[in-house]
Amino acid sequence: MTSRAAAPATATERLRAGTRVWHDALEATPFASAMVGGTLPLDRYVAQLAAYRVVLETLEGELSRTVSPSVASVWSPDLAKLPLIESDLRYFAASGTAPKTGAAQAAEAAEAFAREIRRTAASDPQTLLGFLYVLEGSTLGGLILRQYVTRAYGLGDADGVAYYGSGDRDRWARFTARMNRAVTEPEAQDRVVDAAGRAYHHTATIAQALSVGLTGRA
Fold it and tell me: Residue 70, Cβ neighbours under 10 Å: how many?
């Protein structure tokens, strides 16, 4: 009998395996634990949204401008989340809630992430897909986090949770299918996985800046 060779790993299989440690480290931050535990101060939630707005504005702008065929085959305007996060920030601004503790440090971390995105777009635009994978995945996880946020802050379905409410399993399935078709070569997958690891590093730095003094779960 002859045995069949195992099929090569897809891009998203490699991304999931290659970033698991980073993903777990992000979930272990006091910021993430406090969000799940319902003890996260509202101003820190808003500070995260403000930091992510900087990141999304840069990433989505670069994704829209790149001429990389693989990026163009994955990125589409329906994936844009900048308008959602800006809607959330307008809601909290109107209610008088502004970022405070850790906000300046989180903003600095967001700017560092934005600079890395711009450098990557100039040198190796295909690997922007690693950054996109992490940011798109964060809103898939938001399907779970959204219920904690709305309950902790007494928010309605349309109040300040547009970003965390944008995840959808069908949308994720379509996104990952496009990723797998676009990034097939092992060397390209290596670079995209490396970029995803850097994205997790930056998002964890933002979370750590907003974790000062937090105890985590209730």
Answer: 23
* C-alpha–C-alpha distance, residues 52 and 106, integer Å: 9
Share the mean pLDDT of the chain.
91
- What is the C-alpha separation between 44 and 40, in angstroms, rounded? 7
Q: Give the residue-averaged pLDDT of 54-62.
A: 98
CB-facing half-sphere around the CA of 117: CA atoms within 13 A: 30
Given a contact cutoff of 8 angstroms between Cβ atoms, the answer to whether 141 and 165 are in contact is: no
Report the 10 Å Cβ neighbour count for 112.
Answer: 16
Checking phi first, is residue 29 left (phi over 0); if not, alpha (psi -120 to 50) or beta? Answer: beta
For residue 127, what is the DSSP state? G
Query: pTM of the predicted model, to two decimals?
Result: 0.91
Mean pLDDT of all residues in 9-23: 94
Q: Is the pLDDT of residue 173 over 70?
A: yes
